[in-house]
Amino acid sequence: MNLGENTPPIPGSTPESVPMGRILALHDEGRAHTPLTLALNRAGYGIDFSYSLLEAIDRIRSLQPDLVLIDSKQERRRCPGIFSELRTAADNRLLPIIALFEEEVQDEHLHALELGLTEMMTKPVPVFEVLLRAQSLVRLKCIAKDLDPSEAIIITFAKMVDNRSPYTARHSARVAHYAGLLAERIGLPDRHCRAVRQGCLFHDIGKIAVRDLIVHKPSELTPLEYEEMKRHPKYGRDLLQHLRAVTYAIPVVYHHHEHYDGSGYPDGLAGDAIPIAARVTAIADVFDALTAPRNYRQPLSQADALDLMTREARIGLWDPRLLNEFLGALQWDSPMQAASR
Question: Is the distance from CB of 227 to CB of 147 less than 8 angstroms?
Fold first, then answer.
């Protein structure tokens, strides 16, 4: 039986009137109309309801929603395992799944994220925060589904990601410039140099699925916020992996936060196990981040940034050989050219 059919329809929730997307809400029996679902509907989302996880799985297959919202105390313990199975289907790999729970248990939170939930939020959570999160996640899923597999569109979209903040505008273009200098300096073949430059133009594309409050937070991230930020390489890889025109960039997108000593993410690769394109990108990425202004600090000079990175290379963060080559590459790069890019 389709329990959703027994729920009185929310005005304006027909597919024809919903430009934002459809949300499947998993609630306890008798709790269909909540302030949150009403707010989501007013924001332009169509809302369908389920009252058990098994029913929700069936409705996901038939409805193909753009987001699943779990607000069910009864089904809490069963969520991670069942939705991890859901992820095995290719059509559901980018399906956003948000769970709202009564209290926060950090170990359980992280375990659930590992098993397939996109995010867990602790109640009471402000309605506006859920609305913002839903908008971001639905946007990513729709882009992944509808995107034309061409570099031009991907790069244009990546510029939009950078331009979410004046502090990151043109960041990817500058990273591409610095990484290209280094790639040429170490003698990579021309096609590899082009791949590095192009890949750097959208190396942070996965951040579209990370909340603005975290991406642009003017202070240190909490452990849970940092865990969310660390997922952006995976989001980027998942977005690009089925687009043949840009598969060359996946090592850059997915591995540019690995550290030479194995302490980075997402896979904890070390040394030469990290793809050379990702090691090159990591150095260019950090250098630009240090020398560009942020809303919480002034930029470092090039000399101070390189001094800091040299000390970090000694403790294992960056490939010391590549960093030494980067110093040489910067010496013959025209400051006027770099400033004009």
Answer: no
Tell me the average confidence (pLDDT) per consecutive run of 10 residues in the chain, 341 residues long: 33 42 78 78 87 79 85 63 62 75 59 63 80 77 54 64 61 89 93 88 87 79 89 90 80 96 96 96 95 77 94 96 94 48 43
Question: If 0-12 CB within 10 Å is exposed, 13-18 middle and 19+ buried, where does residue 38 land?
Answer: middle
DSSP line for 76-104: GGGHHHHHHHHTTSGGGTT--EEEEESS-
Rounded CA-CA distance 71/66 in Å is 17
pTM exceeds cut of 0.85: no
Quick one: 337 exposed, middle or buried, by C-beta within 10 A (0-12, 13-18, 19+)?
exposed
SS3 39: helix
Residue among 73, 207, 217, 234 flagged as catalytic: 207
Q: Which DSSP symbol is given to 205?
A: G
The DSSP element (H or E) to which 119 belongs, if any, is strand 119-122
Assess whether 217 carries a catalytic annotation: no
